[in-house]
Specification:
Layout: H1 9-20, H2 29-35, E1 37-42, H3 49-67, E2 70-76, H4 80-89, E3 96-99, H5 104-108, H6 116-120, H7 122-134, E4 151-156, E5 159-165, H8 175-179
Parallel strand pairs: 1-2, 2-3
Antiparallel strand pairs: 1-4, 4-5
Length: 188
């Protein structure tokens, strides 16, 4: 678990940012993480086939994640209309989400912009072709920062319990395993 916010200025700044980051429902991420664990999913742009794949994957395992006591909260950078359409397509319109066009949360959580190899390397191009075209997640135009990398974090009481920062845009985390914790146990 991360250090106590009172003894760490960076952690305190993160807590303040979470408290000021209100989702479309009006609740802030700090309060949501006090109510239950939060799977905070940082997405790329709405045109990204991996973003579309991530939403499809989340839709598939959502019930199990929520039954395990974890709430899913999405973070995206903008183009709300296209993003809302993707949520509706995946029956995720009722999930809490935070639009972060200035990428303040991305930066606070250390979610970096990708290097060329992370965004267009052979693995990325192959997965974009197979997922975007063959599996039909689609490939669209960038509607926000196309170099922004995705990431996921598991929060509890605004503390980071677990993190996964994508090494390439094509990484595909196992959301269900990521959220599974031993009772009363947190791992870094």
């Amino acid at each position: 678990m991360e250090p106590n916010p009172q003894s760490n200025p960076e952690a305190l700044a993160l807590v303040r940012l979470l408290a000021s980051s209100r989702t479309q429902s009006g609740r802030n991420i700090f309060d949501l993480s006090a109510d239950s664990r939060v799977l905070l999913v940082f997405l790329r742009h709405a045109g990204c086939s991996f973003c579309r794949e991530a939403l499809s994957d989340l839709a598939r395992v959502r019930g199990s994640i929520e039954e395990g006591g974890t709430r899913i909260v999405l973070v995206h950078m903008g183009d709300t209309g296209r993003f809302e359409s993707l949520l509706a397509k995946n029956e995720l319109s009722d999930l809490d989400r935070f639009c972060d066009p200035d990428q303040k949360l991305y930066k606070a959580f250390g979610v970096k912009r990708g290097r060329l190899s992370q965004l267009f390397g052979p693995k990325v191009l192959w997965r974009a072709l197979s997922g975007g075209v063959l599996i039909r997640h689609g490939i669209g135009s960038a509607s926000a920062d196309p170099a922004q990398m995705p990431a996921i974090f598991l929060l509890s009481n605004s503390a980071i319990v677990r993190r996964f920062r994508h090494r390439s845009a094509a990484d595909r985390p196992d959301y269900l395993s990521f959220c599974a914790l031993e009772p009363q146990t947190a791992t870094p």
